[in-house]
Design a protein that fits this description.
The protein is mostly beta strands. 10% of the residues lie in helices and 34% in strands.
Length: 99
Amino acid sequence: MDHSAHVRLTANELTPDVLEDATIYGPDDEKIGSVSHTHGTGAGTQVVIDVGGFLGVGAKPVSVPASQLDFMRDEDGDVHAVTSWTKDELKRMPEHHDA
């Protein structure tokens, strides 16, 4: 997928309603996970990504700063993000647990 023509989200758009269920693509344009939920707002937002699993079963939730993801909208208005992390790198991160 060519992400160069996609419209980047502004910091004000990094809200739970906008980001939830967004697909995350790795460096080789591989689907590596999806946004489960977020913590915080604006520049300090933490994004919880479900990595791996099948149809939501067996996925590992990991938390990363939203600033490490490039969120955008495609031609259909669907929100997704690109990151330099691979699926294996995310799987090695500590599992996120909501308090």
